[in-house]
Amino acid sequence: MTATAPALTALARGWCALSLLHGRIESHLEHALQAEHDLSVREYSLLDVLSRQHNGEGGHLQMKQVADAVVLSQSATTRLVTRLEDRGLLSRYLCPCDRRGIYADVTEAGLKLLDAARPVNEAALREALEDAAADPELKPLVRAVEMLRVPTVVAA
Q: What is the pLDDT of residue 60?
């Protein structure tokens, strides 16, 4: 198959459309979250993921799991955790079972900020999807996103 084969070209166009939709949404969310709450999309995502931890079996996420959930490398996740910890939005502690393990929890201030930022994130997401749906190439992807029912539990 050559680089100009119809199937490859369609696949590449589909990937470009998906990448464009993601970029538009992320940019819209970033602008809204920064303007209203001085949060980046990554900071919001990290707070959101960590806020869903619980005290039951497997309830606290290891840093690798957190990194996977926010789609960052472990080192980038550690830097992000440090920035949010410096702002008083997260706290870190050693795992009681394995002193090498480090966990992070959202502080009360972090939960308060996250609660305030959630409606802004939701509104910005709706706006970005509505704007993208006006583009005929992106409209099918917008429909697919709107139909997704992703579980809210973070997988190991």
A: 79
Q: What residues pair up with 92 in beta bridges, in sequence order?
A: 104
Q: Per residue in 111-149, pLDDT tens?
A: 999 999 999 999 999 999 999 999 999 999 999 998 987
Burial of 36 (0-12, 13-18, 19+ CB in 10 A): middle
> Tokens 């502080």 identify what position?
107
In DSSP terms, 90 is beta-bridged to 106
Q: How many CA atoms lie within 13 A of 152 on its CB side?
A: 6
User: How is residue 98 written in tokens?
Assistant: 């394995």
Q: How are beta strands 102-106 and 90-94 bridged, if at all?
A: antiparallel
Are 107 and 51 a contacting pair, CB within 8 Å? no
Whether 146 and 129 have beta carbons less than 8 Å apart is answered as yes
Question: What letter represents residue 117's amino acid?
Answer: A
